User: Which sequence fits this backbone?
């Protein structure tokens, strides 16, 4: 039950603690309630906690938390919804920006499939709707679940909200037993304008654009609010299906329309890049009069059997491309250039701009990429912007494309003040004074200070505690900065010794600005919770350059546990088989592998990693997707000419069935697939007694013959 102590007697520290406590309790109650689990507390208790929270906030407005429970209804509470794991991942799309990118897409697809330049290859082209994607699951014709995309693997359960949207059928007749329909929730311009007028009249903040309005309206804990908001839905894809919808993309979309979904009327079948470009131009010409926001055109390989062969990269399908419209532009003054030092030591110049609205969003910062970009050169030394450099005081053109960070497109030399000076890019780190070095062939200048550079150390720590890595609740960027400044956390392992060092002498932390006994204990608990950490998160959390979230998962899955990974990295220092094995992982290239092996090879860095690991219990990676294929878990090598598929396709296919594909034959190889012209590998396999089959044998083995 909520405490009854009067708010007026509450000290500031106690108030802060209680607000933190209330945020956790109310958050948990919301989750239990909306996740349709048995609610943990009664409605009356919930209301009492909420009132108490509001009363404390009214007394101490400056203590109101960024995640205040008062704001949960009416905003977008990421933690308030139950999570749903998608049966089939929800992917995003690779982007292209011009005709060249589109032609390369066509070429890439042909190359992957081994199609000649003049072989017929059809694509659909349709508007890219600027809303948020939603997956609707129908079982035996009834809508049973609706989930947002989330991180692609896990989304939020918004079933109750989706049921309020008129474009979403509640029942389907003649649908497969299981059908997941995917598409975009969006708001029309007219509805958006009317909604914002209502928001303003009610004293609420208006939404920045229709997409935000759609997202804010769908992700409401109270579905009645969603009902009152005019949301719409276009279907354009599908997830799990128990029987195929059709044999082509176009016919599948037509089938969805026949089942009762809205599909976009501008979806066309095109027979190649020229027709696709023509349709792109036609869609762009109608953009302003469509009545809803679109931000490009999506092309998809029409033949679904070819889509299946093309498959996916880590987060995007090989068979689709989003061709984005040109960005939105505005002019403003460049007030300053700041240098930020990132986690990997990169010195990134940031333009501080006089605030300007670009496509409905106020922009006051833009990236300047690197010193060449400021000087008016590209990576090869060729002039960009007609060779014009960028100076503090310049009148500059800013652009945004989609969600990307704003950039500077142009400089107006007629408006350049006489006092404007060429920008001297620093050659020492502004944070630690170490030399900032630019290596041959690298556009970026990097601080050479490594762990002694406070900016790098702090950025690494922030990365470690962030989402996707350790994701420690209550330990965000602000806290990490504070702890670093105070010398309490200098390296990752220090996070996990905080309780041991401060738990008993709590006074020190307790007396700090923003910390009380309760919040300190909550933090220690949150840290302890993350001692048990999946291998992929640990690896990603180390913040090694080029080792992103999806690469970390691939590498963790490959090696399985920490000891195997660490010893493989040690062995790979000298090249050889361990190095080859790392490179053979699909998605791991030379650059990534070099960066990873180098990080493990640096004594100071390795010692710091080991100190961290000593504090943890690293969980083994999930075994790769369960596959009952006879090749699952086998090490396979391809050699010679393959005639029915390209090498890339063969490798991707084998890996999707759970096999590991290696580049060379060794005693560990289980199977060699040898096409015509196989040479030394076939001989080595014969010497080692490794089973060898031909391409048809392989296709029969994987059930594709
Ligand atoms: S197809 C596997 N078609 O764009 C690919 N996506 O930038 C599934 N989007 O996450 C997506 N209009 O939310 C597809 N006509 C369209 C789309 C579309 C908008 C969104 C979708 C996706 C995002 C990627």
Assistant:
């Amino acid at each position: 039950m909520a405490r009854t102590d009067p708010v007026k007697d509450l000290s500031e520290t106690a108030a802060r603690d209680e607000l933190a406590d209330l945020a956790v309790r109310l958050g948990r109650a919301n989750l239990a309630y909306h996740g349709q689990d048995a609610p943990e507390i009664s409605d009356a208790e919930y209301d009492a906690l909420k009132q108490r929270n509001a009363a404390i906030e009214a007394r101490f407005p400056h203590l109101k938390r960024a995640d205040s429970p008062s704001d949960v209804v009416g905003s977008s509470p990421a933690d308030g919804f139950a999570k749903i794991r998608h049966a089939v991942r929800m992917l995003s799309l690779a982007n292209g920006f011009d005709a060249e990118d589109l032609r390369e897409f066509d070429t890439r697809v042909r190359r992957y499939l081994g199609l000649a330049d003049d072989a017929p290859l059809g694509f659909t082209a349709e508007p890219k709707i600027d809303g948020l994607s939603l997956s609707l699951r129908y079982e035996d014709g009834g809508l049973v679940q609706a989930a947002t995309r989330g991180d692609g693997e896990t989304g939020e359960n918004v079933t109750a909200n989706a049921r309020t949207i008129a474009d979403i059928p509640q029942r389907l007749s003649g649908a497969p037993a299981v059908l997941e329909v995917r598409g975009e929730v969006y708001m029309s311009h007219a509805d958006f304008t009317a909604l914002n007028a209502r928001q303003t009249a009610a004293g609420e903040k208006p939404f920045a654009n229709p997409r935000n309005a759609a997202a804010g309206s769908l992700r409401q804990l109270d579905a009645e609010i969603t009902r009152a908001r005019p949301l719409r839905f276009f279907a354009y894809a599908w997830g799990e299906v128990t029987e195929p919808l059709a044999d082509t993309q176009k016919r599948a979309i037509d089938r969805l329309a026949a089942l009762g979904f809205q599909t976009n009327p501008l979806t066309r079948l095109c027979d190649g890049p020229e027709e696709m470009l023509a349709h792109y131009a036609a869609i762009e010409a109608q953009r302003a009069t469509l009545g809803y926001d679109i931000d490009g055109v999506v092309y998809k390989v029409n033949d679904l059997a070819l889509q299946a062969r093309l498959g996916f990269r880590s987060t995007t399908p090989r068979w689709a491309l989003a061709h984005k419209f040109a960005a939105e532009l505005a002019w403003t003054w460049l007030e300053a250039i700041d240098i930020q030092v990132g986690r990997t030591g990169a010195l990134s110049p940031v333009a501080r701009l006089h605030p300007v609205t670009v496509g409905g969003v106020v922009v006051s910062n833009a990236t300047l990429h690197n010193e060449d970009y400021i000087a008016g050169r590209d990576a090869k030394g060729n002039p960009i912007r007609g060779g014009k450099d960028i100076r503090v005081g310049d009148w500059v053109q800013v652009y945004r494309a989609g969600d990307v960070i704003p950039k500077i497109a142009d400089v107006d030399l007629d408006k350049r003040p006489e006092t404007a000076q060429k920008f001297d890019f620093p050659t020492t780190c502004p944070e630690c004074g170490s030399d900032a070095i630019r290596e041959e062939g690298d556009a970026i200048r990097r601080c050479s200070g490594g762990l002694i550079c406070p900016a790098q150390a702090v950025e690494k720590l922030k990365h470690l505690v962030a989402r996707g890595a350790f994701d420690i609740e209550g330990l965000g960027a602000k806290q990490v900065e504070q702890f670093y400044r105070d010398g309490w956390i200098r390296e990752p392992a220090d996070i996990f010794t905080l309780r041991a060092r401060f738990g008993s002498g709590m006074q020190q932390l307790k007396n700090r600005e923003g910390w009380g006994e309760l919040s300190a204990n909550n933090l220690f608990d949150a840290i302890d919770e993350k001692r048990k950490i999946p291998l992929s998160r640990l690896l990603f959390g180390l913040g090694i350059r080029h080792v992103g979230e999806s690469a970390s998962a691939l590498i963790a899955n490959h090696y399985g546990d920490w000891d195997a990974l660490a010893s493989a990295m040690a062995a790979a220092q000298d090249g050889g088989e361990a190095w080859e094995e790392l490179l053979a992982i699909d998605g791991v290239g030379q650059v990534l592998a070099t960066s990873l092996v180098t990080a493990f090879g640096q004594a100071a860095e390795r010692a710091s990693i080991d100190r961290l690991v000593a504090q943890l219990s690293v969980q083994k990676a999930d075994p790769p997707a369960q596959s009952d294929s006879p090749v699952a878990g086998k090490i396979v090598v391809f050699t010679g000419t393959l005639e029915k598929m390209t090498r890339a396709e063969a490798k991707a296919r084998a890996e999707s069935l759970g096999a590991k594909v290696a580049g060379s034959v060794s005693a560990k190889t289980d199977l060699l697939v040898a096409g015509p012209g196989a040479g030394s590998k076939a001989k080595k396999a014969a010497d080692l007694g490794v089973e060898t089959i031909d391409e048809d044998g392989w296709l029969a083995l994987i059930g594709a013959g």
